[in-house]
């Protein structure tokens, strides 16, 4: 390529004008020494670009290399935006201190690893996701005008072939999967029901990737909390007793795998930790119940579950755990007594825990 040409001109010369037409410029940087120090600029394909194989041209400090972690992270973002078989085009130029680049992880020095790689990859991934989400409004699709009265064919070459065929010759029967729809009244593959024009208001309501994620986060972590003083006191105790170091580890850890039935391995930064999953789960559930108190999301069962049967199941399972054997009559009495107690507390259970119990004990 010409040494004086721009990066876009160079990409156009090597990969063609069809690639350049669907590129978006992207840039992200970070100058926080405690987190990461880097600067990236480049071009990524938009939602209109479709290819069968990912093309990633990555320069780190002006040297052509590969970074598998970065490539996979970007492919994850595109997987949520592009059709299933489509792959993106990516050009990135990354600059960071030379001592932050490890070139000795591959014999040919083609693959590199970076200091604070997770942070850098995450920053670039978020920038790519933001860029793609904002460009969704300009996505285009190839359409075909359908005329119900006049037969039309999907391709002009097919039309020429059919028109040039001799009138007296016996035409071969076309397989069903190769038929071309020419009339909306044709019973083979009527599509007009799917081609109705939608109003602008319906189109505007279509959620993008970020709005869907925000909705999921809000459902998992509701902002409202109970107005009971006792609940706020318990929450204050949790916040006061929280260990900042443990909080940071749990918040930003990566799950590695189970070490045995109780302990799990997690990684935070460059450290490995053993975590008691049972204790952690109990603490998590306790805190979630307090934070969602009186604001739980209800789950409606298709068939209401009878309380006596549920209590009987719990009693039988408890007997197996402690090697005890309570008679069926005693279990039945315990189940009836507890069912009556829960029915008396039905209003409280519904208000605070969103558990609805009817008069029949379901």
From TrEMBL:
Q: What would you give as a GO molecular function for this chain, any one?
A: mismatched DNA binding
From which domain of life does this come? Eukaryota
Q: Name one GO cellular component term.
A: MutLalpha complex
Annotated protein name in UniProt: MLH1
Family classification = Belongs to the DNA mismatch repair MutL/HexB family.
The yes or no answer to whether the keyword Nucleus is present is yes
Q: Which organism is it from?
A: Alisma plantago-aquatica (Common water-plantain)
Q: Which InterPro entries match?
A: DNA_mismatch_S5_2-like (IPR013507), Mlh1_C (IPR032189), MutL/Mlh/Pms-like (IPR038973), Ribosomal_Su5_D2-typ_SF (IPR020568), Ribsml_uS5_D2-typ_fold_subgr (IPR014721)
Q: Where is the DNA mismatch repair protein S5 domain?
A: 11-133
Q: Give the primary localization class.
A: nucleus
Where, subcellularly, is it found? Nucleus
Q: Where is this region: Disordered?
A: 197-227
- One GO BP annotation here? mismatch repair
- Give UniProt keywords alphabetically: DNA damage, DNA repair, Nucleus
């Amino acid at each position: 390529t010409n040494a004086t040409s721009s990066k876009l001109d160079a990409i156009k010369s090597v990969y063609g004008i069809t690639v350049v037409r669907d590129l978006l410029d992207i840039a992200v940087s970070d100058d926080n020494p405690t987190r990461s120090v880097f600067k990236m600029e480049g071009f990524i394909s938009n939602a209109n670009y479709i290819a069968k194989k990912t093309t990633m041209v990555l320069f780190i400090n002006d040297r052509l290399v590969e970074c598998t972690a970065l490539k996979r992270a970007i492919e994850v973002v595109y997987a949520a935006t592009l059709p299933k078989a489509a792959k993106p085009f990516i050009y990135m130029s990354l600059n960071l201190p030379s001592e932050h680049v490890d070139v000795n992880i591959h014999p040919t020095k083609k693959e590199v690893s970076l200091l604070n790689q997770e942070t850098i990859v995450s920053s670039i991934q978020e920038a790519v996701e933001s860029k793609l989400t904002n460009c969704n409004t300009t996505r285009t699709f190839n359409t075909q005008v359908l005329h119900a009265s006049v037969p039309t064919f999907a391709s002009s070459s097919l039309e020429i072939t059919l028109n040039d065929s001799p009138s007296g010759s016996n035409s071969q029967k076309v397989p069903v999967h190769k038929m071309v729809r020419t009339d909306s009244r044709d019973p083979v593959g009527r599509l007009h029901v799917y081609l109705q024009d939608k109003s602008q208001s319906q189109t505007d309501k279509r959620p993008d990737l970020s709005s869907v994620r925000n909705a999921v986060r809000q459902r998992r972590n509701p902002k409202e909390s109970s107005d009971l003083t006792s609940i706020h006191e318990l929450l204050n105790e949790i916040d006061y007793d929280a260990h900042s170091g443990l909080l940071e580890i749990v918040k930003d850890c990566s799950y590695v795998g189970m070490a045995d039935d109780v302990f799990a391995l997690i990684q935070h930064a460059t450290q490995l930790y053993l975590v008691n999953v049972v204790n952690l789960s109990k603490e998590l559930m306790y805190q979630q119940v307090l934070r969602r108190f009186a604001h739980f999301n209800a789950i409606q069962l298709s068939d209401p579950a009878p309380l006596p049967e549920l209590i009987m199941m719990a009693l039988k399972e408890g007997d197996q755990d402690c090697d005890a054997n309570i008679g069926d009559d005693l279990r039945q009495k315990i189940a009836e007594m507890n069912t009556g107690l829960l029915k008396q507390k039905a209003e409280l259970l519904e208000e605070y825990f969103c558990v609805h119990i009817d008069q029949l004990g379901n």
